[in-house]
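User: Sequence in, structure out. Go.
Assistant: Echoing your sequence, followed by the structure tokens.
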Amino acid sequence: MSTCPNDSSSAIQKLAPELLSEIFLLCLPESELWSMRNASQAPLLLGRVCSRWRTIAHSSAALWSHFSVGDFSCDMQKSDYAKDIEALQICMERSWSHPISVTIILEFQKKPTDGCGAPLEKLLLAIISQSSRWRSVIAMIPWVYGDEIAAAFCTKNVSKLEYFKLLVWGSSPPNTGRMSRHRFTLTNAPRLTHLELSADINIDFHGTSHRIKLLEFHHGYNVKTDLGDLITCLIQCPHLTTLFYRLSQSSHTTEFPAILNLTHLRSLRLYFYIGADPNILFDHILVPKLSVLELEHAMPSGDWPSLLNMLKRCRPPLTSLTLNGIHIREQALLECLSLTPELRILRIYHTECTDVTMAAFTFGDCTDNTSANLCPRLRWLQFGIASHFSEAAMKRMVLSRWRVQGLESPVPSLPVKIVGVSYTSLTDEILSDPAILKCMDEGLRLCVAIRVAAAD
């Protein structure tokens, strides 16, 4: 190892150790997919430059507070987990009592029978033993190991935790049962602002109001929830900006706040099963900043008058709207869209859109940018199998929106060029139309899925 040259002209050698330590923190890899054993990256690389840097790096607790488990460039072997245990021990010692950030990403098919079970278990136990220091945990792991992380999250001291993401991959083999059901009281993590789960952890929102800003329950989350639980979540988490909530059963709740003012909410995604109906929720919420709204029903449901009422009342600046399994009458849909002039992305899967919808989306005069009708800022448009418009109407709409001037006009009232359309049809003849082909050559993405005609 070399000694740093005593060169008065070298500005970096004049920096105080405290400042160098702060600079070293900026050298840590931004991606979570990095190995703490990688000698070509910080923090290990910093100690190879010179003795002074090594001394400063080793004494900077925050620099060693980021743990990552897994080698993301190749398959992990038994010896790799043993090396990770050694590296983890060094990091824990050098980080002192500093709050730690942990990333655990394991192979989708990893099982104890692979010969890695024992060292992997030891590694997870070492991480769990530091739960009182957890600041951030990102765990994307097979189901067989998810229960250990979930149990630690729910039963250990996690008062310093700010970010928790537990996504469980795969499914349990027959006759082994699912992961254990756990319950987590949100007041146990007063600093928590980010929570993502696919593991079955029942979240208790009661108590004082919470600081959480992002809450997402992903595919595979099977905790029974109803509209009453969702209402409690919204009341107790007033700082939410992003919410992905899954409703699995009907609600016994009959009382709602007159107005639920969700002033920070920008993204709302609701997935609900048969029997769960959040329609009434939209009669009570005030979402002045909502930009992303996704509603998905496991089975196509009836009309949604409350959606239109909410849009009329709040006029949120929606830029993305997805309706999947939601049956809305065509005229009601058009009225909803007339209230979303800033919409960029629209996905409609179970509304019977006809040539009436296509006409509403067609710009009246392609040479006059002020003649835009519905959603002038639209960039991506997707229709499902319920739509029954003609190819001619689709062609007129596409050509009118492709020929407008400019791609990203800063003037809200002016239309922008559409970049993608996806729909189902009995034929893909439009793909051989010369005018459409010219648009596609210029960059338009047009996707046509062939729909099988119903038997007579």
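User: And one key feature?
Assistant: Confidence is low (pLDDT under 50) at residues 173-178, 366-371.
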